Amino acid sequence: MVINVKKIAVLDQHTIDKIAAGEVVERPSSVVKELVENAIDAGATAVTVEIADGGKKLIRITDNGGGMEADQVPLAFLRHATSKMEKIEDLEHIASLGFRGEALSSIAAVSRVELITKTPSAISGVRYLIEGGREVSLEEAGAPDGTTFLVRNLFYNTPARSKFLKSDTTEANYIGILMEQLALSHPEISFKYIQNRQVKLHTSGNYSTRDVIFQVYGKDIAKGLLEIQYENEFMKISGFAGKPEISRGNRSFENYYINGRYVKNNIITKAIEDAYKGFLMQHKFPFVSLHMEMDGNDLDVNVHPAKREVRFARGTEVYDAVFDTIRRALTRKEMIPSVSFGKEEKEKQEKQEKQIVKPGDIPEPFEKKRREQETAFTKEEELLFSGTLRENQQKIMDIPKQEPMKEKIVKQPLKPEPPKEESPSQMNLFEERLLAPESRIHHQLIGQLFDTYWLVQFGEDFYIIDQHAAHEKVFYERLVKQFENQTVESQYVSPPLIVTLNLQEEALLKANETYFREFGFEIEPFGGREYCISAVPANLYGIAEEELFLDMLDHLAADGEKQALSLFTSRLATMACKAAVKGNHKMSVREADELIDELLKLENPYHCPHGRPTIISMSKTELEKKFKRIV
């Protein structure tokens, strides 16, 4: 058999650039991300992104930032060329979004790029063409202040990469999601996103995150926001946490930004979801939009080529800050959902009415306005979209210079002072609260409905309390308090449980023997890698003790001791559900009164351990509307 021994060869620079481009440019949205982040770093207050055919055929990005000097343009397309840092020490103080110096080089290596740029101090701009990483031309050109990139025929010279792209619609959706995140992370910048000549997103850049949330997610989300503010010696948090009723079935609404960059981090995600435990149903996730500011010494952003991930020097402190901030927002205001008669029917009727209307039925003035909004281009944008910039330069120069600037540049007001956080004492002064201590004597227990629900009148509202969910919550909190205060009693099991551990589990058990003992376990060696569990926490007796023990070891391996307690509490939720009084069970008025009294003293009485509401409310006004007493 003949063995072919291949010789080691040094790749040429053109091949190296194509390989490196794969780390940064995965799809059209990668191009948009890198170029828009460069525009933000250049001080732009208005950025327009236009795409055709999902960004595969054309991506055009225009900004009103500082532009580039003519002699700097070719340098910007060299690998590891950057204006954001000069030496390794600068990595500790990075405040810009892009800094690796690979973006323009990577984009140019796999597409045809045309660049027009001008600085405010220059008389004229410069036009630069580069295709597949090779320079085509560099010449003087007339241009407004700022930078315009046209990226054509992405992956034209790497067809294998092009085959892995999704449909035009899917790729455009990726870009749309990216633009929403950029707008949410930079409310001080006006973003405009145009897809196949239709404006999909246009923000004002007025510094209001709430306004951007309204434009991106709609009025229902914008109405259900709790504003949060927090600051300590190493980080600052601001933004919004959604009320529990606007939860979703996936994590796509968990948005957080560090120093203006949209990132994902397991520590922050866990802190957010832990803070919502007890407020959301299982398998539901919250809405948050958090802006965090941190010093570079506590933050490593150079983890991933696309800068999606970050690492923290003080991860535990970051977790505590995020958890405490969100938890405080959720517990400082009553979270009792208000229900109304007929809301679903009204929404259904409105939806049907909208579907009945045909385009021909729309009055001409409104139809004309709708068509204009769908192709909301300025005169300059219409000229730029087809052909090359060079072919249209004379047309651009013929347009009065101020016309496009009025469309694209939005004057920014001074950043307003963030509103002061409303304290619980202030809220008690202006609204009657069901849970206020002084309100308890005014509660009027009306009676039990369907042997399951208790009705309570207070002021101009009446409340419906689910006796099973309420009892489950009360019982759960009792059990949790016992574990937190380490007043746990042990229950001997007969016969003892024999478990076999691998080397890693055995090492973890030995390192945490004291911890297990404090929580009611009695564990002894039983020969080899087998261990005998002769006692377990009394409150968890009969609930898969062996499975609980092994789960605790797994969580200790992943995240440390804090996770073990949270695993205990998840088991306690199951225990509380089994022990709580069920629906269709007749309770006496005295029992119900004592249960409600204990429920309302809890920090979070609004939801059972599994996230179901314990209390809902309805106003007297809603009832009077239903009976036509008021219109």
Q: Mind sketching the topology for me?
A:
Elements: H1 13-24, H2 28-41, E1 46-52, E2 58-63, H3 73-76, H4 103-109, E3 112-118, E4 125-131, E5 134-141, E6 146-152, H5 159-163, H6 168-185, E7 190-195, E8 198-202, H7 209-217, H8 219-223, E9 225-231, E10 235-242, E11 254-258, E12 261-262, H9 266-275, E13 288-294, E14 299-300, E15 311-312, H10 315-331, H11 343-356, H12 364-374, H13 379-385, H14 389-398, H15 402-408, H16 424-430, E16 444-449, E17 453-458, E18 461-466, H17 467-484, E19 490-500, H18 503-511, H19 513-518, E20 522-525, E21 530-537, H20 545-559, H21 561-579, H22 589-599, E22 615-619, H23 620-626
Parallel strand pairs: 1-7, 11-13
Antiparallel strand pairs: 1-2, 2-6, 3-4, 3-6, 4-5, 7-8, 9-10, 10-13, 11-12, 14-15, 16-17, 17-18, 18-22, 19-21, 20-21
Helix pairs in contact: 1-4, 2-6, 6-7, 9-10, 17-21, 17-22, 18-20, 20-21
Report the top-level CATH class of the largest domain: Alpha Beta
CATH architecture of the largest domain: 2-Layer Sandwich
Shape: globular
Q: Overall pLDDT, averaged?
A: 75
If you consult CATH, what is the topology of the largest domain? formyl-coa transferase, domain 3
Radius of gyration: 31 Å
Weakly predicted, low-confidence segments: 83-96, 348-374, 399-431
Number of domains: 3
Lateral arrangement of strands in the main beta sheet: 5-4-3-6-2-1-7-8
Distance between the termini: 94 Å
Got a strand count?
22
Give the helix tally. 23
Report on the biggest sheet. Answer: 8 strands, mixed
Fourth CATH level, the homologous superfamily of the largest domain? MutL, C-terminal domain, dimerisation subdomain
Strand content: 15-25%
The amount of helix comes to: 25-40%
SS-based class:
alpha+beta
